[in-house]
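Example complex used in Figure S2.
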Amino acid sequence: MNKAAELFLGILTAMGGFVEIGELTFTLGSGVHFGYQLLWVTVLGTVGIMAYCEMAGRIAAVKRRPVFSLIRERNGFGAALLTLVAANAVNLLTCAAEVGGVALLWQLMTGWPYRALLFAALAFFIVVVWLLPFQWIERVFGLGGLLMVVFIVVLWTMQPQWSEMAAGLLPSMPRVESSRELLLWAYMGVALLSSIMLPYETYFYASGGIEDAWTPSDIVTNRVVVLVGFALGALLSVALTGLGAQYFGPRGIEPQLPGTAALAASVVFAKIGLGVAALGLFFAFAGAAIETALSAAYNLAQFAGWPWGKSKRPREAARFSLAWVVVFVAATAVVMSGVDPVQVVEVSIVFSVVVLPFTYLPVLLVARDKKAMGEHANGWFANVLGWFYLVTLTIAALAAIPLFLLTHGGRG
Amino acid sequence: MSERPVFDPHHDVLDRQLVDVNGTFCGIVDALEFTPTPQGPVLTALWVGPDGWLPRVPALLALLCERVVRRHHVSVPWRHVREVSEVIRLDVSAGALGLGRADRAAARWISKLPFS
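Predicted assembly (528 residues):
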C-alpha cells in the first residue's frame, strides 16, 4: 500500500471538517467580530480532533472496528439509537448545506438558476460517488481541496499583524463592551469548537481507515495522516480568521455567502486568485458533502450490522449504497425547500456539539482498554487529552443551545 | 472488586456484529435467548430484529418505534456460532438462517443499474 497516498484520507477528512461551508462562516465571522481573539479555540479544537481521530484510526487499524459499532456496543442500544438519529440529522443538514454551497458557487461562476444547479449538483454527487472507488474520492477531493492553500498565501501577502495573531493563540478574556457581545463571543467560541470537532470527521476517518485496509502496521501512518491533515486544516482555518480580521472586518463586510471568501483572493491575485479560490472552495464543499453522506450511510450500516463500504461493489453493500443515495436526495430536498444553506449549517453545527460526548466517550473507553487494544492502548498523554476534551465538550454541549437561543443564532 | 467472568454473553455477545460463513455481515445481536435447565440458564439462541431490541429502548421511544417497524425477529441457534471474538462468526450462510433478506432484495434491484 502506498503510505503517502493515505495522507489524502487525512486531508479530505480535515478539509471536510475544517473548511466546509459552516466552518468557513464561523471562522470568517469570528475574525470579523473579534479579530484574532478566538484563535485559541481553533488550536483547542484542532488538538482535540487530532486526539480523537488518532484514537479512532488506531482502533480501526488494530481491531478493524468502526466508531458506530463501538457506540452501539459500549453505550447500549437505546443511547446508541438516539446518537444515531442525532448524528445522522447533523450529517443530513451539513450535507444539505454543502450541496447548496456547491450550487451557489456554480451560480456565482455561471449565473445559471440556483434550483437547476441544485439538481445538477445532486446528479454530480451520485454519479461521482457511484463510479469512483474510495481511494480516488480521497485523492481527487483531498488534492483539489489543497487549492484552498491560496487563502494562506493571500493572508501572508496582506502582511497580517503577527503580534496580535500570536496573542490570540493564548486563551484570554474577551475585550467586549456589553453582555450582549460577551454572549456572542461565547456563542462563537462554542460554535467554532463544534465546527472543528464535528462528529462526522471521526466516523468518516475510522471507516476510511477500514476501507483502506489498515492493519496495526499502519499505526504510525495513522498518526502522521492525522497530524499533517488536521494541521493543514487548522492553518487554513487561521488564515480564514485572519482574512475576516484583516480584510472583511475593516470594510464592514459580513460574509454571508459561501463565495465571499474568494473575494479576498481576487484582491491580491485578481482573476486567477478568484478562480483558484473558487475551485478550492468547490472541492472543499464537495468533499464535505461526500464525507457527510457517506458518514450517514456508514453510521446506519454499522449500527444495524449491514454489509458496508465504498470499496465493495454497490450490489455487495446494497442497503449501504441506497443509504448514501437517499441522503444526497434528502439533502437536496432540504435546500430545494428554499432555506438558506448557511443558516442550515449554523443550526446543525450548534446541535452537533450535543452529539460529541456520546460519540467520543466510547472511542476513549476502547482506546484506553488494555484488554481490547493490548500494546496499542492509549498512553497517559492520550488518556489525559481524551478526558480533558470529554469534559470540555460536555460543558460546551450544555452551553450550546442556551447560547444559540440567547444570541438568536449568533445574530446578537 | 471481583473479576468479570471468563465468558459473559451480555458483554461478549450482545450488540456484536454477526458474520456468516461467507464473511458477509448479517446483522447485530439484538437479544439473547436463555433456556432454563437444572444447572441454570443456558444460552440457546441469538435474536436479530425489533423483537430483540424494542424491549431495550425507553418505553416512550419503543412506542414510537413500534409505529415505524414491523415486529419480528430471526432466531440464530447458538450451535451455529463458530467463534466469539470482536465479531460473532457463524458456520452457516445468512440466507440459510433467514438473515440479510432486505440486503438481498436491495441487491437484486441494484444489480440492474449500470456499474453496480
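The mean pLDDT of chain A is 89. Chain A touches chain B through 27 residues (CB under 8 Å).
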